[in-house]
Amino acid sequence: EIVLTQSPGTLSLSPGERATLSCRASQSVSSSYLAWYQQKPGQAPRLLIYGASSRATGIPDRFSGSGSGTDFTLTISRLEPEDFAVYYCQQYGSHGYTFGQGTKLEIK
Amino acid sequence: QVQLVQSGAEVKKPGASVKVSCKASGYTFTSYGISWVRQAPGQGLEWMGWISAYNGNTNYAQKLQGRVTMTTDTSTSTAYMELRSLRSDDTAVYYCARGEDYYDSSDYWGQGTLVTVSS
Question: Which of A55, A61, A95, B101 has the fewest CB within 10 Å, making it most exposed?
Answer without folding.
Answer: A61
